[in-house]
Amino acid sequence: MNPQISAATDASFEQDVKLASWVQPVLVDFWAEWCGPCRMVAPILDQIADEHPGRLKVVKLDVDANPQTAAALGIRSIPTMILFRNGVPAATQTGAVPKSRLDAFVAPHLAAA
Hints:
Elements lengths: L4 E3 L5 H7 L6 E6 L4 H16 L5 E6 L4 H6 L7 E6 L2 E7 L4 H13 L2
Parallel strand pairs: 1-3, 2-3
Antiparallel strand pairs: 2-4, 4-5
């Protein structure tokens, strides 16, 4: 995994995402190993994480291994990316989308960071 991207679990989600999003925006990728579209988005998330060190934290959460968090946030399809700011979801993007669309998705939150 890209060193700019961390993995969250049900147990660490509060610390890794909600509390961290008070410092900088946190983009959470809800994914699973068997998900083809998730694998398509992974290299794009690597690029985004590399392009914004210190301005955006990127976190991956495997929904199969961590069903409680995914259920609590109402994740119904993957990949779903939720951008957290100040401890709460600020924006959601579902599905495999091109890099230009993910850049546009995170850009307003980086400007506010």
